[in-house]
Design goal:
The structure is a homotetramer.
Chain A (H helix, E strand, L loop, with lengths): L30 E13 L2 H5 L7 E2 L5 E12 L8 H4 L1 E12 L2 E11 L2 H10 L3 E3 L1 E4 L18 E8 L2 E13 L11 E7 L12 E25 L15 E19 L3
Parallel strand pairs in A: 5-6, 5-10
Antiparallel strand pairs in A: 1-3, 1-12, 2-4, 3-4, 4-5, 7-8, 8-9, 9-11, 10-11, 11-12
């Protein structure tokens, strides 16, 4: 195997490898994000949640409890990437399911979809199993308009996600009051299954990388967080299994702005 | 010619005509909008501006003066369309050039691009000559993040527009201070050339509709308006003439949120 | 109203109007096309078909009979547009329903979707009520491969259409034998309802253009036409009425290549 | 590290891992392909080519010699994926540069772009450094039409590729005669740099996977191959380095259909 340290292009995090590093699909970390999120709490069938947990994770006692998130993201690394929104701005939908790792309450991400390749590549590096989709959510704007729900009790926001032309998820949030304890929104660490397959002949069942990891964040911020009621639909679609998580019941709904920096990750022992 | 009033589907503004009107590309007006806008003031070659003016409009005395606008829009009619962002949310880029109509200072829109078909159809009904493109702009988010420029002096926002895979426009705004006199942003009425071609054999040069119109707005609102310096690039591209307006000089830059309702229009006499 | 003949830009069929005409969304006719088509014959509920017929058309005696077509198109006018596939190549899905116009058997197009704005604009000029969608069909390639169905008995082709993230149509064709009488594929003239709305205040219900038209074609060619069995699904979707035409029964399926030129149209008397 | 063999989802090649494997971004290999390709031979600056070669590869004696390929692909694995073109059909642009591996003439792929996420994921598994783009090429259709160039001397085909709204490549081929010795089209084995980054804190410069690999193909077929003259443009674009390979000279051009199966790969010693 090649020793990377001896490579003449050492400073670049990932491919394509070009002399100045500008063509790379992802700039080197740390990676900073700002976003608007719609979040719907729900309960899926416990056996459907259990079937998605990798080795090392167990079903939470609140079996089947999960969250669906629609996020409009803006990204930057150290190169003012926020000024190139055509390449780096993106939208995301993902599911977090409650799980237990070594007696610790964690969240695990079995499904995630984005509309941008740089986001997909960063996701894979972090263990997020990203696929492409179109993702949309209702926005609020500073100027008053019938077209823009204000952040005020009784207003509604909706999100949707479609992949390969099929509508896989629709969510709605009715906001009722400002969220007093913001920590309730993201109280569990997210554990991912980082995986890179092996295509070497005869070894397709022995992946090159297959490990539980925990992201390392900094600069977490939350603003304009509102809570109310949420609703989620995960329709049955050809060639897809996301609908196995179709809600038995929905719970709280949230709408918030947030910021964070991804610095790296920790590989977890089993 | 068919008399529309006798048609069994009378209440629908445009096609496709379906029994309940749900399939229509555009719901019936009035149409309400909320948006975030980046605006760059610039001066193009006066002869290039003049070449775009239809009969009935004359070159303004500030010959060549124009604006480029990038807008993230949210739309609604009377059916809560803001809750279906996959179908109705969109992004737009357009140029307004200063002109004179019967001694009145007006703005004329020679080029406009959107990323949504419902917006295109509404545009055509209003006389906006819309084509499809991908349009992006830097956003600001409520939560602090390195990835999000705050509305504060010295911060930068960028926009870009690409059609059929060619980058036709790039803009930047450096905001310096809140805008004290917001009326400076949209002081002229917008005059459009409403056009619908004639494909009847032998009559291709006699359009079915070809008239100057002025939009009728209500509920205009402006919020969080900042002013600073703007910059715009309109690169030469194969099969395109937008670059004829390439700035000789750029001027002010703006970043603002706005809302408005389009109620109808007036057909202007020549 | 403006007299178009006096306009300084007389030779251009439609907007945007630029000095050399290059920016126009559509080049001037005639328009030539080459395409690969999947066609599924089906019968919808007669009342659902009847509800889509405009004034001037009556239900055919084979009440409910219709066709669904998926087409991969390549377009050219007189400017070698086939060498700019990013701007002019496109994919289309449409429905043709049997109808009677003044005792003549015709086909009427109530729904049509494309993935390209130039195709949309040409469609509107012809009376096709086009909206945007993503459209795909299985292709056959000259080189043998497990990934490519050959034109041979027993092989299968599939098509799908999704608009605004919802899967609105799925079709399949199993080919059985070469089509001996190609005229069976397109035996009826297509009648469209050409419509352009009126946004002038107080006149929204009196469209500027609303007329039945018949396209004028030349250079029609058909090649490699196969016939077999077809299957079509039109799923129920939020905010859509296409599913009212969901097949009661499906019939023949076709797969063919075709070429044609659109020269103009005739406005039909009522 | 987790042992994959003990995982309850052993039969799935890559993520997302769902009980039946249907949600996976890529079905398990082998992977079969059929495609139409436009190929342009060219010579870039030798130092620009050399700067892209990873450790283990040397510059070929025909320094700077390269090929640009535009391909319309159809994909299938064992699940009739060719019948789900919305998910699995795709278009690709890539560059192959001549290189030497241990005295063997090989081709190396420094840049490759596709318009589909499943293709991107398969590419990464194979060591192709894929990013997203829109890719188009002129097609030929069986039925005669002015819109369709036939496979006959003097006809022209064009391709283009745009990523994040910038036009990165344009190619043209004028075909002159059938290709008599098809092996001239793909005479060298393709060597890729398979890479998967390491995000573990403090180890960003030590990738998890970084190795030269050679694909293992079977069922290679070529049909309707024509040769003539090629032309290629790689414009300078913001944030991109592909233009460093801008042709000093262009050579032959090809247009062909091809099929192949990817069975696996061999990891190459250094």
């Amino acid at each position: 195997m090649f020793v990377f340290e001896a490579n003449p292009m050492p400073a670049q995090f990932t491919f394509p490898f070009s002399p100045k590093g500008k063509s790379a699909i992802v700039p080197s970390p740390p990676w900073s994000y700002a976003g608007d999120a719609l979040v719907v709490e729900f309960w899926a069938r416990p056996d459907a949640v259990k079937a998605l947990l990798p080795e090392g994770l167990k079903l939470d006692e609140d079996a089947g409890h999960a969250q669906a998130l629609f996020v409009d993201w803006q990204f930057t690394a150290s190169g003012d990437e926020f000024l190139d929104p055509a390449r780096y701005q993106y939208r995301e939908f993902y599911i977090l399911i409650d799980a237990i790792y070594r007696d610790k309450k964690v969240a695990f991400c079995p499904y995630i979809f984005v509309d941008n390749d740089s986001a997909m590549a960063r996701g894979w590096a972090q263990g997020f199993p990203k696929r492409l989709a179109s993702v949309f959510q209702t926005r609020t704007f500073a100027a008053p308009s019938k077209a823009s729900p204000r952040l005020a009790a009784g207003n509604r926001f909706a999100g949707s996600m479609s992949s390969n032309g099929q509508r896989l998820a629709e969510g709605r949030v009715l906001i009722e009051k400002p969220l007093e304890n913001p920590s309730s929104l993201a109280s569990r660490p997210t554990i991912n299954l980082r995986h890179f397959p092996q295509l070497a002949t005869g070894k397709h069942q022995t992946p090159a990388v297959h490990e539980l990891v925990q992201a390392q964040f900094s600069n977490y911020s939350l603003k304009d967080a509102w809570v109310g009621r949420g609703d989620l639909v995960l329709p049955e679609c050809r060639g897809e299994e996301l609908s196995d998580l179709a809600p038995l019941k929905c719970g709280l709904g949230f709408r918030a702005s947030m910021g964070l920096t991804v610095d790296g990750l920790i590989i977890l022992p089993t």
